[in-house]
């Protein structure tokens, strides 16, 4: 018997809030089944994964360190997604920002250039990510290409470009032929916020971005035009908002924030340029954006939740010898569960009787 | 049912008897009867909303009548779906084609046929049909490359391959050039010569008189008359179509007209194929204090005219549109609103308002550049909310909850909101497309009154509507739009329903077509 989705006229507000929570619970149930299938005690696995990282001061800091890029990227993606523009290539914009920002760190390496280097690197990182993000925007506006495909394909271009640089022109001559750049000078490194651990000033930037984005999206005409363009394009044109400008704007912000996250990560916890500077932050941030309901504060919370899956995954690798892929499975299950929960809240499933009895 | 020998066809092939169809409170067809005989071309005449489409959909199984019955060769029959009517030899060519652009003609035709006929054999059959009826279709061309007229011929060929006995053509000439129309008429004549019946739906009086043997006229969902169109004049047909009630008293202008608020000069806009028809040499002047109406059947360029006036579409010539003495042809919507123009589109949900956004946010849609509500790019929610409350109160907008999404309002209340949003911007020019479409009578009267008051205050008002009664009731002058051209507007007191109906049907008798004789 065929089934059909019917739009619900009155979606209860409680449902919209509860949907991500239900999705989280569902993900945990799937996780329990998976742990059992791997021959592990699910309760112990949960403890290692989700409880122990919260108790240790070092991992508490790590949680924030990992959440920082997710917040920055996720908030940027919220601009795109609210405008109904599907930027899937934040990972590439993150890499582009890291590369462009690092150029300055390498160019001033060993010159004792002064304290302006780090702020300039951050600005360059933003610009690099924004330019990379504007490519799919341009292709969409000019040729009507799907930004979903082009932004995703540009991820691989950026990653291979980075690979070339650290194996070629930017390779550290004293690096025993490892594919990595020199370690950045002190004036090109994010200041730490505490003596122990790796918590750095990037989180301050991320929180400021969350506050600013909350204001822009909720209180300004720009935020309204983004929302309107995504919700009713024809009404937006009638209101006098230029669809092309909105497309360029949201991709520039989204790419820029991803680029900023990239350069902060390289100038922060990593300290030099290497082939792998991201455990998939650009993709995980998509989940953070959806889980956070495209609201900057929600994304802040969701980033902490997703950071926990990274930290827990590392802990489980060490203490339980579980593959890191388990983390990917968790994140993927969570995304599918959120999307499914959203559909089930907004739509009702109806059975359709067969119509042809001729 | 057994097959009749071909020479003993019954008098009527397909007959609708007292069909009634309701949609909620609206009676779309009220005991409508129509009989199509073999070998005749039968016209179905009526204005937009007269019930022509509903009747056709019931005759081919797309809709089920609430009461009444269909007779096929004199015997009652039920078509539960379009496939069953097709099996009985009833073919329909709708106004909107169902063709895939990326496929070839023969592939498109194959999709609609049962079984798996080799494409080459099918192409040969198409060629056969093409030659027999002079339809000029190339089977191996991609549909995406074809003109509208060619696509229509593909749809006709597709129908003819099923060897129909009744062919229904839904407004077939509305998308055709005069040459293409002539070719279509020749095809129709060939089909009826073979003993097939053709139901020809149209509102173009001249071609109905030329082509059709009989005509059934609908008005307001009711059967009005069955006539011999060749014995009628275009004028008498128009009178049947739009009705000939006692002329109502036109409203008397109690105030002096001011300076021109809207000038349209030699406005030409090319059509863009799928959506939006062309505008040809449109001229119009509206002065402060008057209400001008544009009548016409939908799809004759009204949508394009609205969009080019609101600034959603731009005119090439800056001077072709002048708002309050400022050339505005190339200005966008925001700049035109800054000239104190207000616009109300036909489509309420999705065009005039964002369905999934709150009503208060929808206020911002047209007020964001008026100064008070947005300062330095920041929305002042207290001011916005005050404006929202004022609209709700002064225009009696009713809804549940404090600030619901726009889609949850009824049509009438949302329209009052949209009109109120513009009126409170204190415009000098208001352009409204279909002010009372689908709105209940009380709300419609309220909206007309509001516009009338604005005109009395010195605002210029342009009303585009398909509701002739409405235009006759509350406008000062009426022009008619037909195939992208606009007639010279005529004072309501000096025209008649008949004259307007004639102009709507495109009957050619010069630019003064709207004047009563």
UniProtKB/TrEMBL annotation, chain A:
It is a multi-pass membrane protein. Keywords: Cell membrane, Membrane, Transmembrane, Transmembrane helix. It comes from the Bacteria. It is found in: Cell membrane. InterPro entries: ABC_transp_permease. CDD domains: TM_PBP1_transp_TpRbsC_like (cd06580). Pfam families: BPD_transp_2. This is ABC transporter permease. It comes from Ancylobacter mangrovi.
TrEMBL record, chain B:
Signal peptide: none annotated. SMART domains: AAA (SM00382). SUPFAM superfamilies: P-loop containing nucleoside triphosphate hydrolases. InterPro entries: AAA+_ATPase (IPR003593), ABC_carbohydrate_import_ATPase (IPR050107), ABC_transporter-like_ATP-bd (IPR003439), ABC_transporter-like_CS (IPR017871), P-loop_NTPase (IPR027417). GO terms for molecular function: ATP binding; ATP hydrolysis activity. Gene3D superfamilies: P-loop containing nucleotide triphosphate hydrolases. Keywords: ATP-binding, Nucleotide-binding. It comes from the Bacteria. Residues 14-245, 264-508 form the ABC transporter domain. PANTHER family: CARBOHYDRATE TRANSPORT ATP-BINDING PROTEIN MG119-RELATED, GUANOSINE IMPORT ATP-BINDING PROTEIN NUPO. Belongs to the ABC transporter superfamily. This is ABC transporter ATP-binding protein. It comes from Ancylobacter mangrovi.
């Amino acid at each position: 018997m065929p089934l059909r989705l019917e739009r619900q006229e009155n979606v209860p507000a409680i449902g919209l809030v509860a949907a991500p929570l239900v999705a989280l619970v569902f993900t945990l149930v799937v996780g329990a089944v998976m742990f059992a299938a791997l021959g592990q005690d699910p309760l112990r696995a949960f403890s290692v994964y989700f409880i122990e990282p919260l108790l240790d001061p070092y991992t508490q800091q790590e949680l924030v360190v990992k959440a920082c890029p997710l917040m920055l990227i996720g908030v940027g993606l919220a601009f795109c997604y609210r405008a109904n523009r599907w930027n899937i290539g934040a990972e590439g914009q993150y890499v582009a920002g890291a590369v462009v920002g690092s150029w300055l760190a390498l160019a001033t390496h060993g010159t004792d250039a002064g304290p302006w280097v780090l702020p300039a690197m951050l600005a360059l990182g933003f610009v690099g990510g924004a330019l990379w993000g504007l490519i799919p925007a341009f292709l969409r506006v000019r040729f009507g290409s799907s930004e979903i495909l082009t932004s995703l394909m540009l991820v691989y271009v950026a990653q291979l470009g980075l690979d070339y640089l650290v194996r070629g022109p930017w390779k550290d001559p004293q690096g025993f032929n490892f594919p990595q750049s020199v370690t950045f000078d002190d004036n090109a490194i994010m200041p730490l916020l505490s003596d122990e651990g790796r918590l750095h000033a990037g989180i301050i930037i991320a929180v400021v971005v969350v506050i600013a984005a909350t204001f822009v999206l909720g209180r300004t005409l720009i935020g309204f035009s983004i929302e309107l363009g995504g919700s009713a394009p024809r009404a937006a044109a009638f209101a006098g908002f230029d669809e092309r400008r909105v497309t360029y704007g949201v991709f520039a912000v989204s790419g820029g924030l991803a680029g900023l996250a990239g350069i902060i990560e390289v100038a922060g916890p990593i300290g030099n340029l290497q082939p792998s500077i991201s455990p998939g932050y650009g993709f995980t941030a998509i989940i953070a954006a959806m889980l956070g309901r495209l609201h900057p504060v929600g994304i802040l919370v969701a980033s902490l939740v997703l950071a926990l899956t990274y930290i827990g995954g590392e802990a489980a690798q060490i203490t339980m010898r579980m593959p890191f892929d388990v983390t990917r499975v968790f994140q993927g299950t969570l995304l599918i569960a959120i999307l499914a929960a959203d559909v089930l809240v907004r739509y009702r499933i109806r059975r359709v009787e067969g119509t042809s009895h001729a | 049912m057994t097959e009749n020998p071909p020479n003993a066809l019954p008098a009527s092939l397909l007959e609708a008897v007292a069909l009634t169809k309701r949609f909620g409170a609206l009676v779309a067809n009220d005991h409508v009867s129509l009989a199509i005989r073999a070998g005749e071309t039968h016209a179905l005449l009526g204005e937009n909303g007269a019930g022509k489409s509903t009747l056709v959909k019931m005759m081919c199984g797309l809709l089920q009548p609430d009461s009444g019955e269909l007779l096929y060769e004199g015997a009652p029959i039920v078509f539960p779906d379009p496939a069953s009517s097709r099996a009985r030899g009833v073919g329909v060519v709708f106004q909107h084609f169902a063709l895939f652009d990326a496929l070839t003609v023969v592939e498109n035709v194959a999709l609609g046929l049962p079984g798996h006929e080799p494409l080459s054999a099918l192409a040969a059959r198409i060629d056969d049909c093409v030659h027999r009826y002079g339809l000029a279709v190339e089977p191996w061309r991609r549909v995406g490359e074809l003109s509208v007229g060619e696509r229509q011929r593909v749809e006709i060929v597709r129908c003819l391959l099923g060897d129909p006995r009744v062919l229904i053509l839904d407004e077939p000439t509305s998308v055709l050039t005069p040459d293409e129309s002539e070719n279509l008429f020749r095809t129709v004549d060939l089909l009826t010569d073979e003993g097939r019946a053709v139901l020809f739906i149209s509102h173009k009086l001249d071609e109905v008189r030329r082509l059709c043997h009989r005509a059934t006229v609908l008005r307001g969902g009711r059967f009005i008359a069955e006539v011999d169109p060749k014995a009628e004049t275009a004028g008498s047909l128009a009178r049947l179509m739009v009705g000939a009630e006692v002329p109502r008293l036109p409203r008397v202008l109690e105030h002096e007209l001011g300076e021109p608020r809207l000038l349209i000069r030699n406005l030409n806009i090319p059509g863009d194929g799928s959506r939006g028809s062309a505008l040809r040499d449109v001229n119009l002047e509206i002065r402060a204090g008057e209400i001008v109406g544009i009548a016409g059947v939908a799809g004759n360029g009204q949508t394009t005219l609205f969009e080019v006036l609101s600034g959603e579409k731009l005119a090439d010539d800056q001077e072709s549109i002048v708002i309050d003495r400022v050339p505005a042809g190339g200005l966008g919507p925001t700049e035109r609103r800054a000239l104190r123009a207000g616009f109300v589109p036909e489509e309420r949900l999705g065009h005039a308002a964002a369905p999934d956004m709150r009503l208060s946010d929808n206020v911002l849609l047209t007020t964001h550049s008026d100064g008070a509500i947005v300062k330095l790019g920041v929305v002042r929610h207290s001011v916005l909310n005050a404006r929202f409350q004022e609209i709700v109160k002064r225009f009696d907008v009713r809804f549940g909850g404090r600030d619901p999404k726009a889609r949850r309002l009824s049509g009438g209340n949302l329209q009052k909101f949209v009109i109120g949003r513009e009126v409170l911007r204190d415009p000098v020019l208001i352009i409204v497309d279909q002010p009372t479409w689908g709105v209940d009578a009380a709300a419609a009267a309220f909206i007309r009154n509001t516009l009338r008051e604005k005109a009395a205050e010195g605002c210029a008002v342009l009303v585009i509507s398909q509701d002739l009664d409405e235009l006759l009731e509350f406008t000062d002058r009426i022009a008619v739009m037909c195939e992208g051209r606009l007639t010279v507007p005529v004072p309501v007191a000096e025209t008649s329903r008949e004259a307007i109906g004639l102009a709507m049907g495109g009957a050619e008798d010069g630019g003064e077509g709207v004047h009563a004789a």
